[in-house]
Amino acid sequence: MELINNPTLDEIKKAAKALNDGHLVAFPTETVYGLGADATNEEAVSRIYSVKGRPKDHPLIVHISSINQLSNWARDIPEYAIKLAKEFWPGPMTLIIKRSDLAKDFITGGQDNVGLRVPNQPVALALLSEFESLGGLGIAAPSANRFGAVSPTSSNDVVDELGEYFQSEDLILNGGSCSVGIESTIINCLGDSPSILRPGAITHEMISSALGNEKLNAIRSGNIRASGNLDKHYSPKAKILINNYPKKGEGLIALDSVETPEGVERLLAPANLEEYAVGLYEALRLGDKLNLLVINIYAPENNDLGVAIIDRIRKSSGQLNAN
Ligand code: TXA
Ligand code: MG
Questions:
Q1: How much is the pTM?
Q2: Ligand 1: which residues within 6 Å by Cβ?
Q3: How far is CA 92 from the centre of its chain?
């Protein structure tokens, strides 16, 4: 595996060729780092599953360079999905739409729908466009972490998570740290109205205002497969306690208005929700590096980006229904 820092256009072309040749390329997006493979190459995609240690029936998001590629991968696209794509792509939003013949079972986990996203990160967009100029149609990419672990927000995290599982011709592109810091909003576009399957930086409020009168169903769908819906996910090694007063020797993640009690290891003190999302996963990783047994997290308010942050905090603690 080769790590390329601040890739030049020539190095991005080399990465596009590596994808085309069936190798894996980890790359930055604005949300988290992705582990990419040619989405039409079954063998390359199967390596994603083995490198991540992820069950085969968990579908992958296909990354495309623009809304123009949408109809390659999807069919029966609802009007509201086009509206959302026009409004929020490139950006931290994944749309689940009925699949075209191009989206094979090895991408969709055998479901008749596919997740699609145009990321908003310069290295990712350049990689997608160079890959397309070689005839590529899309890059399948889950978060570049072992199954169930915390998503990576820097190339160092990718090396820590997956370094030992890569092969010599696989690449990691270092495009700096991620500007959003938590995974994309996933929106189910299979029904008459959309529903949010995984909250993210494209918030319920933003989606509702983009769609005007159209009804947005915020309820999680129970029968659609998304590994983010497993009870324990995005988990560090430390035990996570939510809204619990920290004891000496424990870690604390909370907005900067909360003071750090004496003897407590402060892992993150964000000034606002955006900073909270950007720093959350790095703070969880730091807690593990410091071998903390317990990390206490004060949840932010449950609106706007706070909804997604609380979702990830609950998943990291294994207490999806905690308050
Ligand atoms: O921000 C993100 O979405 C990042 C970056 C790399 O784009 N990707 C990401 O992928 O978080 P992953 O695989 O770690 O999480 C995507 C989630 C998984 O829980 C997967 O099961 C679900 O989306 N998913 C993908 N395609 C789906 C589909 N067709 N139907 C239902 N869920 C789907
Ligand atoms: Mg993931």
A1: 0.95
A2: 29, 31-32, 34, 58-61, 94, 96, 108, 111, 113-115, 117, 119, 141-143, 183-184, 186, 224-228
A3: 8
